[in-house]
Design goal:
By secondary structure, the protein is of the alpha/beta class. The chain has 11 helices and 8 strands. The strands form 2 sheets. Strands 1, 2, 3, 5, 6 and 7 form a 6-stranded parallel beta sheet that branches. It is globular. The two termini are 15 Å apart. Bound molecules: zinc ion. Zinc ion binds next to β1.
Length: 237
Amino acid sequence: MSSLLAIAAVCVTLTPAPAFAAQTPKKAPVDCEQVKCIALTFDDGPGKYAGTLLDTLKKYDAKATFFLEGQYVKSRPAYVKRMVAEGHEVGNHSYSHPDFTKSEAATIKSEIQKTQDEVKKAAGVEPKLLRPPYGMADLQVSDIAAEFGMPMVLWTAGSEDWKTKDVKAIQKQTLAVAQQNGIILMHDWVKQTVDGMPSLIKTLKNKGYHLVTVSEVIKKENLEPGDIYPVPAGWEK
Ligand SMILES: [Zn+2]
């Protein structure tokens, strides 16, 4: 692990400055090895309140990641199109949210493929990351994720929004678990999460966080298809 990190650090050091750096870019890219990044991730959507959430993210120039359920991509494709158009990341969270560790291989494959197809239809892109339902994976799930060319991304901490459904409690919990390169689990079907988002984003920004997509935060991990991050306790491959 430490030697891999060392190699990554060397690569970063040796990368020459791009020739176009002299021009004034519209916006400097965020380097999460240099600045404090955090990735807010919203599961099970697009949820009912995705439109309001997208308005807030746009207003505060924050990026997020949506791990989408194919069945809702199908019923709310306009939100997915907007997510992609506005620079957010979309990931695959199955079609109908079964526990993959209790599913047949054929079911898992079809759940993933159908969601890839719906997202492609809605927004013209295919998700590159998988978040298995409930964050539950095993070696079979890992092998199938690898077949699809996707690493699996879980979370470093949860907002517990689905449990508390309370604006203040969600903000308090999120700020308590916020950390550099943290990946926070939230839900855009929880109204209180979306209601409290303007104030939460302002507070995170005041604490120095850059709100970025999950791919920005995991870039340094160089995940391969089938890999899982963060690695759950007891995970062996
Ligand atoms: Zn879920």
